[in-house]
Amino acid sequence: MPAVVLVGAQWGDEGKGKATDLLGDQVDYVVRYQGGNNAGHTVVIGDQKYALHLLPTGVLSPNVIPVIGNGVVIDPGVLLSEIDGLQARGVSSERLLISANAHLIMPHHKALDKVSERYLGKAKIGTTGRGIGPAYGDKIYRMGVRVQDLLDPGILQQKIEVALGEKNQILTKIYNRRTIDANKVLDEYLGYAERLKPHIADTSLILNRALDENKVVLLEGGQGNLLDIDHGTYPFVTSSSPTSGGACSGSGIPPTRLTGVIGILKAYTTRVGSGPFPTELEDEMGDWLRTTGGEYGVTTGRNRRCGWFDAVIARYASRINGVTDFFLTKLDVLSGLERIPVCVAYEVDGVRHDEIPMTQTDFHHAKPIYEEFPGWQEDISGAKTFEDLPANAQAYVKALESMSGARISAIGVGPGRTETLQIHSLI
Length: 427
Ligand code: GDP
Ligand code: IMO
Ligand code: MG
Known about the structure:
The protein is an alpha/beta fold. Helix 5 crosses helix 6. Helix content is about 30%, strand content about 20%. It has a ten-stranded mixed beta sheet, sandwiched between helices. Strands 14, 16, 17 and 18 form a four-stranded mixed beta sheet that branches. The longest helix has 22 residues. The site of guanosine-5'-diphosphate (GDP) has 22 residues, from helix 1 and strand 3.
């Protein structure tokens, strides 16, 4: 009954989509357990490129059942256009299951995400503007609208009216915006209900029964460890729990059933949005990493901030998530460098820190302590085994492994499915 979690080990965009897709023929279910359409997961299959936001990557594997778990926040309009977009390319989402307990992103969530960011000014989070924070806020505040409410028009109407009763006051009196019409929202969401009904299910029950029958479940995280609401660089985080603990609460699969945790780790570091980033390179080297690695947001198109690999955050990801295997992605991007610095610890006000500092203030002041490794000039995208890699690339991987707290079991040398070196089995 393998239930394996796949988590981003940095600030998101590590290559979770590619890694999930790679495992597509070994798994029966792929479950998104948190986040929403703030995610952008890229999958390259042959000459086809897909960008998935809400649909689990498993939708691209015909024998996999894709599941949107209870921990996800769903913008139903976006979900349906994603389904239609894939359908137009010959990919069916008919098998999709959606948890009745997942929450819905409502128009007022999107409006509030935008105005609250504007209100914060220079202190803004740099959100994706998709309504994620306000939707999770209302979930915790117990004012959320859930997928199951789509099945009961009377309840749906009541919930929309109660929510807008408060949110319209906030929008008009605090932010000087227009009110949102409850009847229009009700009509819009009842329209979505018609199309989504066949997919709504008790997904926790289905997944646990599948595990009883020895089926393989892969839990696909969005975002990453340092964007976690509890363990990330708060407040510059997303509003959910991408870490492996969140996989349980966000799917209804208990911790005792998890059999492995795959941490996806980029061979360097990127981040989108505001917040601390000790190894960030704000020079030509950062531009080189961005251009060479194609580091532009899949969801918002923003430039990703780029920097060297940070072993302190890799170790932290290993600890918080209980990583059993790392999948190191984008090693090919580093080809052509003379020397490759790796951050092995931080210096904060003259004191060395081998682990993430306890306070936000210290983390903001953390200066990387680098160790340099010799680079390699060869194009490694054609490598098929670890031994095919140049000696210096092998040494770089081994060094990262020794610092990161878990073995490196797969290495990405290109965006395609086949451009992966498998060292140990991941499932
Ligand atoms: P995700 O959000 O974690 O799924 O990652 P994104 O899709 O946002 O960003 C990762 C990018 O790197 C995508 O464009 C992938 O196609 C690409 N990618 C993934 N693995 C590799 C790799 O090993 N090498 C290269 N060159 N690109 C990769
Ligand atoms: P994937 O799944 C990278 C970042 C945003 C912002 C912060 C909060 O593709 O790795 P939100 O809209 O979630 O309230 O924004 O989180 N962020 C991501 N960064 N990859 C993602 O997803 C992200 N999802 C959210 O840029 O800094
Ligand atoms: Mg992404």
